[in-house]
Request: fold
Amino acid sequence: MKLYGASFSPFVARVRTLLAFKGLDYQQELPPGGLPKSPDYLKINPIGKVPTLVDGDLILPESEVICEYLEDTRPEPALRPADPAARARSRLVNRVADLYVMGAMFPLFPQLNPATRDKAAAEAGVAALRAGLGWLDGFMEGEEFAVGGAMTMADCAVPPILFFVHYVMSHFGDHEPLRDLPKLDAYWVNMSRHPVCGPVLDEMDTTFKAMLASRG
Ligand SMILES: N[C@@H](CCC(=O)N[C@@H](CS)C(=O)NCC(=O)O)C(=O)O
Reply:
């Protein structure tokens, strides 16, 4: 299998976590021609975003779809709980993190620089992100895992998103964005030390810093 994308992308990190948890072999490459959206990469994935998984003849974009496919084709060790209600809760945590946390973060990226910031847009964006984090915290079951007593697909998705929550919120003077959400805060600490999630987060940190340094 081949996975296109840089390790600091939270969506790539989600798939890398799942691949590491299952002990699957794969080759990781940056998109040909680099980002954003080179003609060569658009031939592979017309959306132009990362990740893209290539497994034989199958070319799959979209991290959640990739994770579902890998869980269907390589079911052991399982990342979907056996109980349908727990399975739904894991999917719910995933969805809330994608839509209301990651989704709230995208409009904040153009507002990171205080010199060029639209103050009203930044305030609205930060408020939306805090609301999303509150909902996410509410749907999380525990401090060790998102749902139940074992790792699920939600634990592949949420920690990389929380990595970016820390990065983004630090630009708005908040260096402890989970401070008022003790469940999510403890979960973040636990996931940072988790034998599978921790190294993926470390790799995000290393590659993200290198990317920022290369931009000067
Ligand atoms: N919904 C997509 C989101 C992927 C995404 O937004 N990836 C970003 C990197 S974190 C990207 O490729 N951005 C480049 C661009 O939009 O041109 C997924 O889950 O895979």
Summary: The chain has a mean pLDDT of 96.
